[in-house]
Amino acid sequence: LEGACRVHVRPSMRPRPLSGCGGAGARCTFTPPPHHTPPKSLCEERFRDAPLDHFSFAAAGETFRQRYFFCPHYARRAAAADMLDAPIFFYTGNEANVELYLNATGIMWESAERFGAILVFAEHRYYGQSTVGRPKATNDVASSHTMMAASSAPSDLSVAAGVRSKAPGIGADDTGIGIDSDDTGGDGTGIGSDASAARGTSQRLAYLTSEQAMADYATLIREIKDEINSPEAPVIVFGGSYGGMLATWMRLKYPGSVDGAVAGSAPIWSFVGEQPAVDPGAFAKGVTRDATAAGGASPSCAANVRHAWHEILGRMDGTAVRRVRSSDIDIEGTGQTSGVLRTSTPGTKRKPPRRMQFEKPETAALSKSIGSVGAPLRLCPSQPLSTFDDLMAVMYWLQDAFDYLAMGNYPYPSSYILNGDGTLPAYPFRVACSGAIANPQLAAVGGDALLSALADAVSVFYNYTGDKPCFNYTQGVNPATQDDGDLWGYQYCTEMFMPMGRDGVTDMFWPQPWNQTLAVEQCQSQWGVKPKVTWADTVFGGRSLTAASNIVWSNGDLDPWARLGVTTSPSPSLHAVLVQGGAHHLDFMWSHPDDPAAVKKARKEERKLIAGWIAEKRGRRSLKGDQLFSWEEDLTQGAQVE
């Protein structure tokens, strides 16, 4: 997730809802393989009035319009219109338009056909068309890469990376709860310019929490059961990335409503307060592994990418930067490297995670030196570089490409990471690492050759159409709104507080240390809220799963989120499935001729578990008649024996 999670990558590392296809303002959604019936044609698009607040009476009577898709096709076909015995397969919507998951989650469709199941795809409150007001944070381009020192989405457990374009604010008519336009920052965007605007924004988003979203899902499940007159229908929840986190937590928090959970690429162990403590650099290490021979890439790729960052930083401070060898990159975190290069003194106090602390008098000579990276990186002349902030924005933009390519490192051409607007090649990370960046002698050449090779690598992502003459680093991979990225930023700053950083030693990037104090300060500045830093660990139990059962987690070894998920089975009823050669929730995708054997095996194992959970629920249901004594009968018999 997805999703989590940018020039930060949140859980859900899912692609952004785009406006690049279907005309201005249209939202693209992933299209399933052409040999499949369009899923949406087999569903009813519905809206329900869901309570705004499930947990208090402060907003008693207030509701919002939640969208969901009800898809009974396979249940009706299996039971000739009688759906009383049909299981319910329920998708716990991520931080995006739910149509993305309806179209992309092939495992649910293919499994529903086998089990005769009803499918339900529920949209997460505030996202897609289930809006409850969508204001934006008070920030600039640089800070829009939120505070996750890594890259941050999620979704598909992803973060708001790659999306830079400004979007119109949401007016009072579009919020779903009648927010007045007077509450905006005065420019119609919903963005304030001071602390009071940030506080106003946080008030409008007060009901955007995972707990409220799960309560939406739990009450919707009850409504569906009532509709089909089947109160004991088995319910299996599915979710990928942030959706996988929600699926996990639904089974933990609502075991009476949910009988089993299938969670793909769900980084549930990524929060402050866990024991052992979460590694903020886990995601970056995962991205770096994809750039090595272990990830199927050129053996020189990771080292050359790292050389390129130091070349860029060398342009900033005007000094030569020592070259690094492949042995300087400690991919597995053993601490064993030779001659580690640092761009600043250990222990130096740094600014917020997305920034590095340098003495940087921006003289004319320095501005010229900074600007010299533009040509070899093929940046558009309309976006000249002259300041330190410009340079850092470019570096984060370049970094984003590697994050997304790692999440979307699928074994066949796919449009998922591009949200349906274009196609990435099979194993796109390996393609990015196959050009000049793979040259083992590149570091010795250095200079512009390094930067040109870096541009070639990221062009696999940013120039997937092959027709861009230059790059605009202020834009993402597609024209897009940033609504969802902003909303995730708020969730991150309240309860989804996930430490992320990079150190330039165990990964192929440059030092971006996790600083919790400064991250909290930035949240307060942007959103007017102070994160509950240990809340997720407290409310969901962190690594303590002793009371849990009937959950399967899948993770691909090419997915950078895998290191933050469950990769070994905690108990006989809690299962971990590792997908060798799999990227972000590959097992959730539609079956494909180029699927590796491991993903086929994973789906088979997941379906076997689902069958067992359904049988278990039906077995319990069958015991509710004469085979089970009521407690009154039991007590009566006990008295007679005495």
Write a structural description:
The longest helix has 26 residues, at 597-622. Helix content is 33%, strand content 8%. With 642 residues, the chain is of the alpha/beta class. The model is unreliable at 1-27, 134-193, 319-361 and 625-642 (pLDDT under 50). It has an 8-stranded mixed β-sheet with strand order 1-2-4-3-5-6-7-8, sandwiched between helices.
Summarize the main sheet: 8 strands, mixed
Residue windows where pLDDT falls under 50 for at least 5 positions: 1-27, 134-193, 319-361, 625-642
- How do the strands of the widest beta sheet line up side by side? 1-2-4-3-5-6-7-8
Name the shape in a single word: globular
Name the assembly state: single chain
The count of strands amounts to 8
Q: Which class of secondary structure composition applies to the elements?
A: alpha/beta
What is the rounded distance between the termini?
58 Å
Helical stretch count?
Answer: 18
Percent strand: 5-15%
Q: Helix coverage percent of residues?
A: 25-40%
Output mean pLDDT.
78
Order of helices and strands: EEHEHHEHHEHEHHHHHHHHHHEEHH
Q: In short, what is this structure?
A:
With 642 residues, the protein is an alpha/beta fold. Helices cover 33% and strands 8% of the residues.
Would you spell out the secondary-structure blueprint of this structure?
Layout: E1 44-51, E2 63-71, H1 73-79, E3 88-92, H2 99-104, H3 106-115, E4 118-122, H4 195-204, H5 210-227, E5 235-240, H6 242-253, E6 260-264, H7 282-290, H8 301-317, H9 364-371, H10 388-407, H11 428-432, H12 442-445, H13 447-462, H14 483-494, H15 516-527, H16 535-540, E7 551-556, E8 574-579, H17 597-622, H18 631-641
Parallel strand pairs: 3-4, 3-5, 5-6, 6-7, 7-8
Antiparallel strand pairs: 1-2, 2-4
Helix pairs in contact: 4-15, 7-10, 8-9, 8-13, 10-13
